[in-house]
Design goal:
Order of helices and strands of chain A: HHH
Distance between the termini of chain A: 33 Å
Oligomer: heterodimer
Structural class of chain A: mainly alpha
Number of domains of chain B: 3
Helix content of chain B: over 70%
Order of helices and strands of chain B: HHHHEEHHHHHHHHHH
Strand content of chain B: under 5%
Number of strands of chain A: 0
Number of helices of chain B: 14
Distance between the termini of chain B: 37 Å
């Protein structure tokens, strides 16, 4: 079990812990994608890592 | 990230949801259908290329089986795939519109893997549906890993829901994306700006090129391993553990070890399908090394620079092997452990990054 999931499951019912963690990860994912599209970060293109 | 990359990430997340939402028997088909849909939407030319090859290659394999000409089919298909890959790099657009040929370099190698395994008698001909499920797997489409068909099918068969695997995968995917985008994309660019602004490397252009080449290797490692973590994390969210691509290459003590730790699925592919057959045919491992590095170089880019780059890397491998055969004449093994752990990786980085200044200078002399 990952530390984040264990931490939440100790404090919330398992199903709530999983939903909360998924929401947190979704927010983080959207933030990174928005950050990447904002122009503040140097774009990394497919060709760079091919 | 560009729009295509964002679409591929979001499409992969859609696949994760579909894989757990639909009945098990239909799950992989649903994932493949989403991949085909997303690819057709963001890169129609790549979708046409991939779907066409997925439909045609198993048919050609069947014809080859019936005619008893496996070798001819493998050579024909491999040559055709290589030609298409090289040609795709020359196409900038159709009717003034740019076209995106996403993932061609990777699925070409997957095709050749299946063809070679079939030729060697280690794999039976997959059905078109099974072949499509293998190729139409969205997380690995853009930057690999070059996963193998038998391993993928084993993973699909053992797939079970596990909250632990799901959240481990999500964490790895997020970590990888942040590593590639924030560290690789932002911090590295700012570091280069800083170094250029302060003219810290206002030495000779040759030495400056060498230092920036070394920094580029670091950036490529950060972004590439980040995107690989994203792909493997998304796969794990689907319950599939695919092959790893990096094994701490910064710890490699010599160049041979480096190539067993860096982009491992590609180097294993080159070892199995280029190095082993050629080294065995000519009974000369050196020829095998040069051929494998040549294929690896041309896979990156079809250019004179990458031909020279391949010879540079092969030369490094041969020199390393010669040194290892001579039982450590420089007595490096007697160095303290800390010195060894620094000296080896540093020597590897110096050789790898030395390719750019040395070869660019050589090209300027050869092609003025």
């Amino acid at each position: 079990m990952t530390p984040a999931l264990r931490f939440l499951e100790q404090r919330l019912p398992p199903i709530c812990a999983r939903v909360v963690l998924m929401l947190i990860y979704a927010v983080l994912l959207i933030s990174i994608i928005m950050l990447a599209g904002s122009g503040w970060i140097e774009p990394i293109l497919y060709e760079d890592v091919q | 990230m560009n729009a295509i990359e964002v679409a591929l990430v979001l499409g992969s997340l859609l696949s994760v949801g579909a894989l757990w939402a639909v009945p098990r028997a239909m799950a992989q088909n649903a994932s493949a259908a989403i991949t085909a849909g997303v690819l057709a939407l963001v890169a129609p030319a790549a979708a046409l290329w991939l779907l066409g090859s997925v439909a045609v290659i198993p048919l050609l394999m069947r014809l080859g089986e019936l005619a008893g000409r496996r070798g001819a089919v493998v050579i024909f298909c491999s040559a055709l795939l290589a030609t298409l890959l090289i040609a795709s790099r020359e196409i900038e657009g159709v009717a003034g519109q740019p076209i995106a040929l996403v993932g061609g370099a990777y699925f070409t190698l997957r095709h050749v893997h299946v063809l070679m395994e079939w030729w060697l008698g280690r794999l039976s001909i997959p059905s078109i549906a099974a072949y499509a499920r293998y190729h139409l797997f969205l997380p690995v489409l853009m930057v690999g890993p070059i996963h193998r068909l038998p391993h993928f099918e084993r993973q699909c068969a053992r797939r079970r829901w596990s909250a632990d695997e799901f959240f481990s995968g999500a964490e790895r995917a997020l970590f990888g994306l942040a590593l590639a985008v924030v560290v690789g994309g932002y911090l590295h660019a700012r570091l280069i700006d800083l170094l250029k602004a302060h003219e810290l490397f206002a030495l000779s252009p040759f030495l400056e090129s060498w230092i920036f080449s070394a920094l580029d290797w670091v950036r490529i490692y950060i972004t590439f391993s980040g995107f690989t973590d994203l792909a493997l994390g998304l796969s794990l969210m689907m319950g599939l553990r695919l092959e790893e691509n990096f094994d701490r290459p910064w710890r490699a003590r010599n160049l041979i070890e480096f190539w067993t730790r860096w982009h491992m699925t590609l180097s294993h592919w080159c070892r199995d399908y280029v190095y082993v057959p050629i080294a065995a045919s000519f009974r000369a491992p050196v020829i095998g090394v040069f051929a494998a590095m040549l294929v690896l170089g041309l896979w990156h880019e079809t250019s004179a620079y990458y031909i020279l780059w391949a010879f540079w890397q092969a030369l490094g491998i041969v020199l390393t092997q010669l040194y290892l055969n001579r039982e450590d004449p420089l007595r490096l093994q007697r160095l303290p452990a800390l010195a060894k752990s620094v000296f080896g990786p540093l020597a590897v980085l110096i050789w790898l990054s030395g390719a750019r200044p040395v070869l660019e200078t050589a090209l300027e002399v050869l092609i003025p």
